[in-house]
Amino acid sequence: MRKLFIIGLILFASSLAYGQTDCSQTPEKCVLITREAAIKALEDSDRVKALEVQVTVLKDAVSAHKDIETNLKVELAKAIGENTALQKSEVRLTAWLDIAMKNSRKKCMPLSLCF
């Protein structure tokens, strides 16, 4: 049992040693980055996250603005309709008043008494 455990440990250690590649032998498989580049990449990722949040907030604001604009258009259409109805009513009442004024005048003939 002890020999089997030692053989397993040796196989595990050798797989770890050969599993890692040496960048000096095969540099095309390795990525080298400087400290400054790493810091800049982190700052850029933070900036990208902040911009994504800003974009979502702006999209929400635009959709809310569109909803408000739609509601205002509906209210404007209602107000214009009411105004048109009131103007129509005013014209109709003015016509009735004109008819009533013309019919209420007494026609006086010459040499007749009109009260």
Protein model, in words:
It is a single chain. By secondary structure, the chain is mainly alpha-helical. Helix content is 77%, strand content 0%.
Radius of gyration, in Å, reads: 46 Å
The main pleated sheet reads as: none
Distance between the termini: 140 Å
Residue-averaged pLDDT, rounded?
81
User: Which series of helices and strands comes N to C?
Assistant: HH
Number of distinct helices: 2
Helix content: over 70%
Looking at the structure, what is the overall shape? rod-shaped
Poorly predicted ranges: none
Given helix and strand content, the structural type is mainly alpha
Q: How many beta strands in the DSSP annotation?
A: 0
Q: What percentage of the residues does DSSP assign to strands (E)?
A: under 5%
Short description:
This protein is mostly helical and 115 residues long.
Primary descriptors:
single chain; 115 residues; mainly alpha; 2 helices; 77% helix; rod-shaped
Give a topology summary.
Elements: H1 2-19, H2 35-104
